[in-house]
């Protein structure tokens, strides 16, 4: 336990989050010290404020977007500061401008995560401008220009640090993706035997899938965009190879979505035969977690002995099962184990590919990704002005959040004016930091913010009671800022604790009555949290069930495209087909978005979790449907398959018709008539007959004393078994999805 704790501390100090916190602290301290030495310290705080305001948009991503993001942030924070300071003496004008600027800046969140951080910087500029005292126009202009200088200084300092350690962010995201993928494999292992915990484990998988998909998107932007911009380097090629293997592992893991009803049928009394396969997944998951740590801290790659030993035990597990049950009774269970074993061997192949890349083995892999193909994998964030104006509507969750936030800020400001609250802008700061577009995240951040503030205040009180030494306050303020900024994304509660101690120690340096500062800090935080929580609940609340139509529609649409792409793959046998891989990526992202939406819905108040079981069923059906397509696609890519049959095409067309019908229900269009089930029944009989024919052939071989099956016959048996079962499964899933959607539409059309 202590060893794991020390390891996590080491990983934190060597990771990019701590590095970014250190970068911010140094970029603030350098001008403070420099201006002090040359005798113009009075200008230093404005530069420090400029650094602090414009650092948030410095997040992992392409270098070009990082530069553009910080430059836009500098323009917005500088202009906002200048306007608010000039308007402060004129209360009616200030209230009007406060409203307009808050509305404008908040809507920048429509441009994705980086846009939301730029918006946060702009809102933060409002808060600091309300707290700063500048009496003359000259002072205001100098202060605003110095804020711009601080932002530009931070940009230059960040670019310099990027030049020194260019791949810190990439390593961090690669490490996090390896870690999440390792955890994902371990949860999949538990699903094999933990019958009573499958719903909880499935929910855990949904959460991990969402996180992994988000990391994949970040890596696509970082690796593929950089590759397009500056060409190939040895380092970039290595990281791209690791990323490609991680995507393949994720698809393979998702593709092997076992039919647990059949697992229970065949292995409920023989769970011991599943344990080698469960253990193999655990070993591979732990190996990926170890590799994730080595990306950050370096060190020797662990031996592959445990992996090979687990592979050997899984291989013997199939024979033990056949010996126990005996053929032909054991055939279907053995086929399931063979498919599971094949999938795990492919996982091991990808893990060993990652090992070879990390170990710098020459010619570890050959990358065949053209730049034109790479561009198709990047989900570009559009920055058209049209997006801004499209979101000015009550139908837009971002606009509703903008209205809530603007009203909350005005209430806090007027409250401070009316009651003459000291440092009332702290209330506004709390609102900006806590309030989020959805109820669940706002509630979570409220709780963590209050706890973090109380813990930070308590710590600061103890230090202030022990000493009045300003040097100690300055050192603790610098350390608190560094850790607060480093942890705010990773652990909000701990980050909020350090931010609180930073603010209190800064005020302790300026105000001898520091205990009063602590008291007001805590009270203002509580008031701001209360306003945020009430506004999120009562003002145009963004209950998740109202946003599900578009998310479900996107999943069904992308799953349909992916299904057709898989059908085409079976016909063409072109495993490097970009027309298959791009729809696969889009389908994975759509399901991840649905998973995230469902997770947010579970955080809403119980009264707003309308038909939660039905929604969960739709989420599970869509997830399972995607997994079944991925299973089929994975098999086609990794096996020498026969030509696709007419019956296969009939099944795919029937399934697609069910999906089109379901999509029409959601979009309130007239559904096309469903296909004749008689033809599908005939196709099903033919596919079953093909599998039975091969099974009989194998039975005759066994009767003749041939105990070892030919590789070609085994491959044909696996293909016939998998194609028949996956098509049958997809057909059933599409029909269940249609029925669930009919019920969903009927209920939610009346809400």
Automatic annotation (TrEMBL):
<feature type="transmembrane region" description="Helical">
    <location>
        <begin position="22"/>
        <end position="55"/>
    </location>
</feature>
<feature type="transmembrane region" description="Helical">
    <location>
        <begin position="140"/>
        <end position="160"/>
    </location>
</feature>
<feature type="transmembrane region" description="Helical">
    <location>
        <begin position="453"/>
        <end position="486"/>
    </location>
</feature>
<feature type="transmembrane region" description="Helical">
    <location>
        <begin position="614"/>
        <end position="636"/>
    </location>
</feature>
<feature type="transmembrane region" description="Helical">
    <location>
        <begin position="402"/>
        <end position="419"/>
    </location>
</feature>
<dbReference type="InterPro" id="IPR049453">
    <property type="entry name" value="Memb_transporter_dom"/>
</dbReference>
<keyword id="KW-0812">Transmembrane</keyword>
<feature type="transmembrane region" description="Helical">
    <location>
        <begin position="522"/>
        <end position="540"/>
    </location>
</feature>
<keyword id="KW-0472">Membrane</keyword>
<feature type="transmembrane region" description="Helical">
    <location>
        <begin position="93"/>
        <end position="110"/>
    </location>
</feature>
<dbReference type="Pfam" id="PF12805">
    <property type="entry name" value="FUSC-like"/>
</dbReference>
<feature type="transmembrane region" description="Helical">
    <location>
        <begin position="117"/>
        <end position="134"/>
    </location>
</feature>
<keyword id="KW-1003">Cell membrane</keyword>
<feature type="transmembrane region" description="Helical">
    <location>
        <begin position="67"/>
        <end position="87"/>
    </location>
</feature>
<comment type="similarity">
    <text>Belongs to the YccS/YhfK family.</text>
</comment>
<protein>
    <submittedName>
        <fullName>Uncharacterized protein</fullName>
    </submittedName>
</protein>
<keyword id="KW-1133">Transmembrane helix</keyword>
<dbReference type="GO" id="GO:0005886">
    <property type="term" value="C:plasma membrane"/>
</dbReference>
<feature type="transmembrane region" description="Helical">
    <location>
        <begin position="492"/>
        <end position="510"/>
    </location>
</feature>
<feature type="domain" description="Integral membrane protein YccS N-terminal">
    <location>
        <begin position="71"/>
        <end position="324"/>
    </location>
</feature>
<feature type="transmembrane region" description="Helical">
    <location>
        <begin position="425"/>
        <end position="441"/>
    </location>
</feature>
<dbReference type="Pfam" id="PF13515">
    <property type="entry name" value="FUSC_2"/>
</dbReference>
<dbReference type="InterPro" id="IPR032692">
    <property type="entry name" value="YccS_N"/>
</dbReference>
<feature type="domain" description="Integral membrane bound transporter">
    <location>
        <begin position="411"/>
        <end position="534"/>
    </location>
</feature>
């Amino acid at each position: 336990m202590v060893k794991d704790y020390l390891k996590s501390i080491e990983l934190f100090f060597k990771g990019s989050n701590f590095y970014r916190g250190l970068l911010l602290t140094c970029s603030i301290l350098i001008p403070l010290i420099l201006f002090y030495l040359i005798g113009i310290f009075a200008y230093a705080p404005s530069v420090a404020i400029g650094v602090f305001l414009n650092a948030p948009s410095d997040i992992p991503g392409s270098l070009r977007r990082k530069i553009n993001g910080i430059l836009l942030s500098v323009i917005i924070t500088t202009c906002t500061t200048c306007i608010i300071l000039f308007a402060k003496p004129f209360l009616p004008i200030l209230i009007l401008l406060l409203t307009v600027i808050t509305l404008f800046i908040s809507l920048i969140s429509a441009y994705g995560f980086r846009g939301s951080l730029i918006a946060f910087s702009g809102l933060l500029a409002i808060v600091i401008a309300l707290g700063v005292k500048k009496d003359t126009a000259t002072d205001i202009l100098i202060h605003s220009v110095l804020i711009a200088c601080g932002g530009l200084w931070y940009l230059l300092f960040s670019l310099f640090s990027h030049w020194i350690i260019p791949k810190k962010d990439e390593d961090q995201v690669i490490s996090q993706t390896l870690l999440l993928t390792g955890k994902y494999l371990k949860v999949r292992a538990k699903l094999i035997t933990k019958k009573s915990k499958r719903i909880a484990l499935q929910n855990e998988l949904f959460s991990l899938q969402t996180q992994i998909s988000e990391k994949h998107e970040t890596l696509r932007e970082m690796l593929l965009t950089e590759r397009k911009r500056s060409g190939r380097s040895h380092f970039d090629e290595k990281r791209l190879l690791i990323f490609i293997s991680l995507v393949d592992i994720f698809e393979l893991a998702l593709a092997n979505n076992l039919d647990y009803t059949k697992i229970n049928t065949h292995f409920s009394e023989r769970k011991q035969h599943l344990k080698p396969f469960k253990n193999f997944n655990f070993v591979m998951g732990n190996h990926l977690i170890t590799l994730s740590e080595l990306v950050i801290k370096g060190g020797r790659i662990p031996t592959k002995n445990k992996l090979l030993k687990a592979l050997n035990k899984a291989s013997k597990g199939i024979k033990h099962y056949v010996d126990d049950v005996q053929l032909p009774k054991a055939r279907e269970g053995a086929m399931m184990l063979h498919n599971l074993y094949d999938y795990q061997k492919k996982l091991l192949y990808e893990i060993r590919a990652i090992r070879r890349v990390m170990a710098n083995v020459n010619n570890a892999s050959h990358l065949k990704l053209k730049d034109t193909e790479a561009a198709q994998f990047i989900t570009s964030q559009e920055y058209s002005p049209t997006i801004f104006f499209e979101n000015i509507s009550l139908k837009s969750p971002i606009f509703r959040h903008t209205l809530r936030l603007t009203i909350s800020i005005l209430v806090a400001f007027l409250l401070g004016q009316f009651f003459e609250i000291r440092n009332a802008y702290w209330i506004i700061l709390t609102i900006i930091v806590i309030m989020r577009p959805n109820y669940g995240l706002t509630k979570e951040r409220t709780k963590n913010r209050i706890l973090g503030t109380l813990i930070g205040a308590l710590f600061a009180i103890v230090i202030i009671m022990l000493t009045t030494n300003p040097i100690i306050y300055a050192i603790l303020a610098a350390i608190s800022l560094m850790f607060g900024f480093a942890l705010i994304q990773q652990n909000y509660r701990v980050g909020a604790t350090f931010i609180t101690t930073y603010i209190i120690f800064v005020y302790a340096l300026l105000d001898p009555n520091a205990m009063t500062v602590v008291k007001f800090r805590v009270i203002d935080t509580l008031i701001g949290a209360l306003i945020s929580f009430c506004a999120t609940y009562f003002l145009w609340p963004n209950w998740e069930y109202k946003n599900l139509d578009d998310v479900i529609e996107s999943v069904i649409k992308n799953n349909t495209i992916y299904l057709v792409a898989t059908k085409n793959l079976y016909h063409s046998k072109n495993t490097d087909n970009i027309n298959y891989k791009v729809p696969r990526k889009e389908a994975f992202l759509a399901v991840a978005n649905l998973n995230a939406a469902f997770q947010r819905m579970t955080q809403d108040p119980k009264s707003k979790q309308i038909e939660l079981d039905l929604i969960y069923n739709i989420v599970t059906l869509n997830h399972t449907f995607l997994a079944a397509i991925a299973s089929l696609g994975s098999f086609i890519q990794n096996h020498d398959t026969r030509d696709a049959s007419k019956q296969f095409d009939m099944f795919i067309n029937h399934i697609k018709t069910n999906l089109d019908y379901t999509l029409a229900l959601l979009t309130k269009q007239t559904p096309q008539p469903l296909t004749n089930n008689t033809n599908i029944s005939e196709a099903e009989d033919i596919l079953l007959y093909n599998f039975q024919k091969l099974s009989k052939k194998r039975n005759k071989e066994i009767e003749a004393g041939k105990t070892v099956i030919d590789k070609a016959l085994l491959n044909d048996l696996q293909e016939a078994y998998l194609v028949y079962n996956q098509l049958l499964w997809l057909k059933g899933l599409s029909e269940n999805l249609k029925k669930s959607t009919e019920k969903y539409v009927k209920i939610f059309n009346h809400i």
